[in-house]
């Protein structure tokens, strides 16, 4: 949660005009930041020189604004503290005396205690009670007073308790008021120094803020004393001197405080999706949605829902027809082919969510009697169900979760952001070099925190540049498209850089290991990134639109113990993955190694249950559904049958031509559907074809096909980086990118990357022995 949100939610509504105007001060800082960038892009004439001269007085202007905010906080605190002290002293005096009571004029405390004693004497034994004891324990203090107590006396006690609770809440809110404003002043000074490259935070905090009365240690000590005094008075009167009971009763009335904390990148993605959904809801609420009127009725239906229903019905009809037509030699193969087409259509049209189809696949496999035993006989339903679920949880899934954990920890503790900000801070201000540096940072981060998470992090890093650009500047779409396309390319750089790579590894026997993967993927990725950079410069010409961009400020926080542990665990995990072949007798598979960071991060509390909930479980379920489908296609014999038919057509082609055919096929599917779905559907077929060639090249074709999955980037729906980029909007609610941007830049890049895969990639994989 951002601090501005924490301040907004935790502030006392009645006091909102007395807090530090954090958002206003932040807007002031960003305005001055934009003015500085604009000045740098103006010719160095007299006017611009004067403008730069005005920047020298910026500290004085900002500190004057901050001083006004500080005095507003001090004045309110002094007034409120005096008011609460007066109320507490008055209440303390009232607790020592009591208005005359017709039954027994005595002090409040003794009257209440005597009443308790009388109640205990007159209370019947436990065996004679007809109601649970808890009802007596929960009775209010008014109900325990003697029947001789006057109404005036009871009302006096009720008023005293209400006043004590009100005082306790007010003092607690005043304590929160001091802490929130102290944090607000410190954070806004930190932001000012970072954004505008100043150094006033330490001096202002030490000379102005901390010596002020509300922020003195003695003041906070006095505030705690007053809170404790209120608790003591309440305990003596209403809880028979039990202070803990008094605290428990009064704390019920406190508002829940929202804490400021760092998010993992997965939480940021969930938040981004929710914001996009909320924006869509608001847009629909304020505009006329496209509807379709049901013939001969007055019912209107959303056209999107109609399209989904039509696609779903067509998919079901197609499934029913294919399941009843004998296209293959055996019934299990016919049923499996019908299921394969059903899943492909549902994934392609998104008639239901992708992960929902993942749930549907195992539901249909067993009733359709698709699974077969080694001798070709039908597998009993219990055995089939067991086999399906075993295929859905494998080393591949644990490796996917391990990658999520590494990405979550690296982002939560600011390690990835610190690295990226330090690199980007060295890029200068020329748009072309900033673009190139940003793209290579995206490429590198995708290797370790996946290309699903990298765009979210990099988009936040270039925020200082985007907010200082002119409206409709071509630099913004150029920069964002560079991040998205570089992240797509980065999806092929390492085994954990994308879900499709993890799926590809499952079909490579033996596993290539990280060394071979790097040797093949990195040259292709680096050349592709340079080519993409050149194309973006040609299309958008950012240097003409803006000579100088705002600089990215590096994160200068000291390395914490948590950061050191996260880096150590990450490096150790990657080292074990790279040494997989030599460690196979110890760990057995990469999934066991992936479980190490999962245990350490969650076991030590570095990652919490909330962080686990924020994982992309939709991707996990999609992958599990694809694995179940792969098991069914293999067990039924359909995969071998399809592979043999394809083999008879292409077996006389050179291996490079076969790789080119499959690469182009996957490129089309991944562009219009998604990278992960393309891998789930086509990679198993590619493996079987490669195994049945006259000279088997299964690993070469599978790895090439897996790399080609990341090449599809010509549409906003082509992959997670593109989908993240298309959702970004400026401060006015206008999208930075359109479908045209992806078509103009993404399609040529996709074709180029695909060509590199079946030319350069073929050569590198051949050298690796594939």
UniProtKB/TrEMBL annotation:
Source organism lineage?
Answer: Eukaryota, Fungi, Fungi incertae sedis, Mucoromycota, Mucoromycotina
Q: Name one GO molecular function term.
A: phosphate transmembrane transporter activity
> Under the cellular component aspect of Gene Ontology, which terms does the record hold?
plasma membrane
Pfam families reported in the protein's UniProt record: CitMHS, SPX
This protein's UniProt keywords:
Membrane, Transmembrane, Transmembrane helix, Transport
Q: What is the designated name of this protein?
A: SPX domain-domain-containing protein
How does it sit in the bilayer? Multi-pass membrane protein
Q: Where on the tree of life does the source sit, at the highest rank?
A: Eukaryota
Any one of the GO BP annotations: polyphosphate metabolic process
Where it mainly occurs, coarsely classed, is: membrane
Domain SPX intervals: 1-206
Q: Where, per UniProt, does this protein localize?
A: Membrane
Do you know which InterPro entries this protein is assigned to?
Cit_transptr-like_dom, SPX_dom
Membrane spanning residue stretches: 305-325, 337-365, 392-413, 433-462, 474-493, 514-541, 561-579, 586-608, 614-635, 656-686, 698-721, 742-765
